[in-house]
């Protein structure tokens, strides 16, 4: 699926029909997302389609939830002024009175609400909730009485079932809570609060069923920002990356989406392999926010990651440099930041700078064995065998060390010894290290031709010819026991025979060398130059 990000960002008011305006804010509040709710209610407050009394009521609920009672009361009074026939602002004022310990004043407010709308079951459910949230024990009688009134008024009203679901959820009776929420959306098939609370309550019991309910809700309420977002989040939590990305793509076209969701979407696109699209969205997000914003940091990171994934190294280097030049409080780098920047630097020919970034990556995550392996590879590519051995020792010393790591540790020390030049002490100590780890590997995996061949190479480099010959012959014996070995391991045989022949000549054993060459020809019969050489050999 291809998303045209600039078109998405420019659609603006053309997409108003793809949202529920202030009602999305109300739904966000009902499911406990009060910051999101406030953003949407404030954003849509002056829209001509907004019912002000209702919007003011929920803005008051948000302030009350934050403990700002004076601000809450001000909003509720604005709601009453906007529509004196709306019962819920009176109930909200009564709830404030209850929490202040003035039950008599609360009763007066509740009576006012019933006076203007006494045949509405939701009114009694709201009054019951006010008593429950004030003190369910002290007001148990009033709570029960109003729940009963709600049922008598309309036994199919969803609000009373949602209240009972919330009460059960508070007692950690999640099965019972899910059952009440299910009753609510059975009676009200488009009730977003009931569906979302059911999904959130039941997700850890049966995530597939919980997610299916959100899919069902979205079919019924396709313009709901809450339904769109919650379904995208559930896909994300289930590691359904492509479905999460597709759903986020639809959701961020809703004008009631949030900036942080665009950031999540950019990340999902990256992890879904849509690097160009992820990069463009990150670029667009950055263009609309201040340089010191933390989201600028996150999106610069995504630009680096995407350019590395696209192997556009020069641009990746630019974004890497930009990312590490940022000084935004609270932002922390990850080992991947260093690795990706190092990769970019390596590919533009800045080898020394690249190594320095890999080292920082390991400093940030010293227990990441895969990362250490990457650093070792970089050192070897740059022929810094001493550092490669030093870091590979960390792998060998870790609990994750395997037999193959012992073998590879031997090869690292062998490389140091082979390139030690005039440093005889370094050469000898490295040869000892190579011997030690080859022997340990051989104990773990006896009869492995690679390990025994490694032991031969070590003694060959050390100038210890009798030991080298012994290990080379052991290697040949292991290979000879394998089926079809002289075809499958032809190059290994040739390498060993070349070394054995050389050592025979160095010992002035021409007859022995000729015998070795004949064995070589047995596995390499098309080697005319060697055959000609052997035929002309003079053996005393």
Number of strands: 0
Outline the biggest β-sheet: none
Radius of gyration: 37 Å
The low-confidence parts are: 1-18
Distance between the termini: 79 Å
Helix content: over 70%
Describe the protein in words.
It contains 31 helices and no strands. Helix 19 (about 315-325) packs across helix 20. It is about 75% helix and about 0% strand. The model is unreliable at about 1-20 (pLDDT under 50). The protein is an all-alpha fold and about 550 residues long. The chain is elongated and about 125 Å long. The protein starts with a helix and ends with a helix. Among the domains are: about 400-465; about 480-540, no CATH class.
What keywords describe this structure?
mainly alpha, 0% strand, 540 residues, single chain
In short:
With 540 residues, this protein is mainly alpha-helical.
Show the helix and strand layout.
Layout: H1 5-10, H2 22-30, H3 34-44, H4 52-65, H5 69-82, H6 87-99, H7 103-116, H8 121-134, H9 140-153, H10 158-170, H11 174-187, H12 192-202, H13 207-220, H14 225-237, H15 241-251, H16 259-271, H17 275-287, H18 294-309, H19 313-325, H20 335-347, H21 351-364, H22 369-381, H23 385-396, H24 403-418, H25 424-444, H26 449-462, H27 465-480, H28 485-488, H29 490-506, H30 510-523, H31 528-536
Helix pairs in contact: 2-3, 2-4, 3-4, 4-5, 4-6, 5-6, 6-7, 6-8, 8-9, 8-10, 10-11, 11-12, 12-13, 13-14, 14-15, 15-16, 16-17, 16-18, 17-18, 18-19, 18-20, 19-20, 20-21, 21-22, 22-23, 23-24, 24-25, 24-26, 25-26, 26-27, 27-29, 29-30
């Amino acid at each position: 699926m291809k998303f045209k990000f600039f078109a998405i960002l420019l659609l603006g008011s053309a997409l108003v029909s793809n949202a529920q305006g202030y009602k999305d804010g109300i739904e966000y509040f009902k499911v406990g997302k009060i910051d999101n709710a406030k953003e949407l209610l404030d954003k849509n407050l002056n829209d001509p389609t907004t019912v002000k009394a209702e919007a003011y009521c929920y803005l008051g609920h948000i302030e009350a939830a934050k403990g700002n009672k004076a601000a809450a009361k001000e909003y509720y009074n604005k709601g009453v002024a906007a529509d004196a026939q709306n019962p819920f602002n009176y109930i909200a004022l009564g709830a404030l009175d209850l929490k202040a310990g003035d039950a008599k004043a609360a009763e007066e407010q509740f009576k006012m609400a019933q006076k203007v709308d006494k045949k509405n079951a939701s009114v009694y459910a709201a009054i019951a909730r006010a008593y429950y949230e004030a003190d369910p024990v002290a007001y148990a009688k009033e709570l029960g009485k109003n729940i009963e009134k709600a049922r008598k008024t309309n036994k199919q009203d969803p609000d009373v079932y949602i209240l009972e679901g919330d009460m059960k959820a508070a007692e950690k009776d999640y099965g019972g809570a899910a059952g009440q929420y299910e009753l609510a959306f059975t009676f009200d098939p488009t009730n977003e609060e009931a569906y979302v609370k059911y999904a959130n309550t039941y997700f850890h019991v049966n995530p597939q069923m919980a997610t299916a309910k959100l899919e069902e809700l979205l079919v019924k309420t396709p313009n709901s920002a809450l339904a769109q977002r919650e379904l995208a989040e559930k896909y994300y939590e289930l590691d359904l990356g492509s479905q999460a990305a597709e759903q986020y793509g639809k959701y961020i076209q809703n004008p009631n989406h949030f900036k942080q969701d665009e950031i999540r979407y950019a990340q999902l696109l990256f992890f879904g392999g849509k690097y160009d699209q992820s990069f463009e969205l990150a670029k667009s997000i950055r263009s609309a926010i201040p340089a010191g914003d933390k989201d600028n940091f996150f999106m610069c990171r995504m630009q680096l990651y995407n350019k590395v994934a696209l192997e556009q190294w020069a641009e990746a280097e630019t974004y890497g440099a930009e990312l590490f030049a940022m000084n935004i409080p609270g932002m922390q780098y990850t080992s991947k930041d260093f690795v990706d920047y190092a990769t970019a630097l390596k590919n533009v020919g800045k080898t020394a700078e690249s190594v320095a970034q890999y080292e920082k990556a390991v400093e940030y995550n010293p227990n990441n064995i895969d990362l250490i392996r990457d650093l070792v590879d970089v050192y070897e590519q740059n022929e810094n065998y001493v550092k490669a051995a030093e870091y590979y020792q960390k792998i060998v010393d870790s609990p994750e060390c395997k037999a193959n790591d012992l073998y590879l540790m031997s090869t690292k020390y062998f490389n140091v010894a082979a390139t030690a030049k005039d440093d005889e002490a370094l050469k000898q100590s490295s040869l000892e290290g190579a011997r030690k780890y080859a022997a340990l590997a051989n104990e773990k995996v006896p009869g492995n031709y690679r390990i025994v061949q490694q032991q031969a190479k070590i003694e060959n480099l050390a100038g210890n010819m009798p030991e080298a010959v012994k290990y080379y012959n052991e290697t040949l014996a292991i290979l000879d026991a394998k089926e079809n070995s002289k075809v499958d391991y032809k190059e290994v045989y040739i390498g060993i025979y070349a070394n054995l022949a050389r050592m025979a000549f160095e010992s002035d054993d021409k007859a022995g060398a000729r015998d070795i060459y004949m064995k070589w020809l047995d596995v390499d019969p098309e080697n005319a130059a060697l055959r000609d050489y052997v035929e002309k050999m003079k053996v005393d």
